[in-house]
Amino acid sequence: MLNDRSSTLALLATRRSGKPREMVAPGPSEAELDQILAIAARTPDHGKLFPWRFVIVGEDQRAALGEMLVRALEVEDPDGRMAKRDQAIEFAHQAPSLVVLVSAPIAGHKIPPWEQELSAGAAAMNLLTATTALGYVGGWITGWPTYSEFVRHNLCAPGERIAGFLFLGSPGRPLEERPRPEMSQLVRHWVGPTN
What is the domain extent for residue 37? Predict the structure, then answer.
């Protein structure tokens, strides 16, 4: 059974993301979203820097997000197909809830930027796990909007980057397991220095 919430270990062992384009209502309530974000913020963070931010795009802002994505396409790909514009608008309207995770490393700090960026990734994983624990599904999406300078400029402060768009809602159809790695290919035991 996917997303088995009978215990913490069962949830972690069976957690499965949902596809944002297939998500339906209900999504998390405002109070549940506050709880999800508070849990997301309880992540490993060397130096206690909180090098990430959460940008909630409300339901009433989805049309504006779609328009902004279309403008980004017009600036960055003026000869692009109309289908891309339609896809950008669809992207903005997926799932009942949307949180944009922004990586906001503290420049010049003794904690290396890489560690701060890893902390943003851990915040995303906590967000997805908390969402699943509350009985919803989440999907962490990147794609071209994540790397668009126009989109970044509209969602981030200088020096920040988009770590991803986290869509939250209920599955519109049963979730399917995805291929998982063969652990023997990923795990090895260190046997000491080679020289």
Answer: 17-172
